[in-house]
Amino acid sequence: MTTMTFGKAITAGLRRAMENDPKVLIMGEDVGKLGGVFRITDGLQKDFGAHRVVDTPLAESGIMGTAVGLAFRGYRPVVEIQFDGFIYPAFDQIVSQVAKMHYRTRGAVKLPLTIRVPFGGGIGSPEHHSESPEAYFTHTSGLRVISVSNPQDAYTMIQQAIASDDPVLYFEPKRRYHVKGEVEEAAEAQLPMGAARVVTPGSDVTLVAYGPLVPTARDAAVAASDEGVSVEVIDLRSLAPVDFTTVEASVRKTGRLVITHEAAQFGGLGAEIAASITERCFDYLEHAPVRVTGFDIPYPPARLESHHLPDLDRILDGVDCVLRRPSSLAPAAGRSVSAVG
């Protein structure tokens, strides 16, 4: 086992993928000499050359279009979107070309393309630098969407994404880049890319999170245990497809579901999970599922982001709500914490 920061684990995973397959290349704004704004690709251009770690113009649509052509010709490009909010100029390429090419050609063409997206808030940046656009892409058939929450998954899942013949959006929580953890580099026994993980076993409430909020969910489970409440935390890991089997098994046991994410509530991934689990587990539910999310507003200024992002107290409010205990929740439209139903 090696101790690595979250960011260095991604770097190590990229390096391993490039060593194993000469068709893997990296492209994006400032990914070469600078090593990316978060230094995730630091040293890779020096070791693999400018023909495999390519600094591109500031043109996300052009970057993505070029990557489509490379994937079409048998390469495995890894595209870095510098910040989450910069992905929108490439949105048309992703949903119209990347997602549909395999279906459009009746399976004749594969696009093994990985799109790295640093996402989420918590670093004191404004809009365009702190967004959570994952729901746009989970809605789009033909894309795999994953989000990592710890160094081990960061290392393993970037390699799984690159090795996949499907196009994959790889969402990495930028505020966790400096978090350290143990990484097993010979990680053949890790979970498949599409599987969720039970992080903290429990029996009273199921708490589903992904990406940046998994550590917060774990802290909430510890805090709840001090009051005699057993919370089972599930790290979703794959956002499309969702491992509903794992979530369903947990909810059938606990009878209660709380979902948390940084993205806005309306039309967010939490709504889909709540609806699907209600359909699958209606007879087991003791309370309507509850979502603890960001507010339905543009991302706020840095001084207000701590109020916008779900924290331990707001998640515990959600737990109290499904347990029918006194909480600050109110059934008002547009609230960032609400019951479904």
Write a brief caption for the model.
With 341 residues, this protein is α/β, with parallel strands linked by helices. Strand 10, helix 8 and strand 11 form a beta-alpha-beta unit. Helix 9 crosses helix 10.
Give the overall average pLDDT.
94
Number of separate helices: 12
Q: Could you give the count of β-strands?
A: 15
The dominant shape is globular
Secondary structure elements and pairings:
Blueprint: E1 2-5, H1 6-20, E2 24-28, H2 44-48, E3 53-55, H3 60-72, E4 76-80, H4 91-98, H5 101-104, E5 114-119, H6 134-138, E6 144-147, H7 151-163, E7 168-173, E8 180-183, E9 197-200, E10 205-209, H8 214-225, E11 231-235, E12 238-240, H9 244-254, E13 257-264, H10 269-281, E14 290-294, H11 305-308, H12 312-322, E15 337-339
Parallel strand pairs: 2-3, 2-4, 4-5, 5-7, 6-7, 10-11, 10-13, 13-14
Antiparallel strand pairs: 1-8, 6-12, 9-11, 14-15
Fold and architecture overview:
The protein has 341 residues and is of the alpha/beta class. 33% of the residues lie in helices and 21% in strands. It has helices spanning 6-20, 44-48, 60-72, 91-98, 101-104, 134-138, 151-163, 214-225, 244-254, 269-281, 305-308, 312-322, and strands at 2-5, 24-28, 53-55, 76-80, 114-119, 144-147, 168-173, 180-183, 197-200, 205-209, 231-235, 238-240, 257-264, 290-294, 337-339. A 7-stranded mixed sheet has the order 3-2-4-5-7-6-12, with helices on both faces. It is globular, with a radius of gyration of 20 Å.
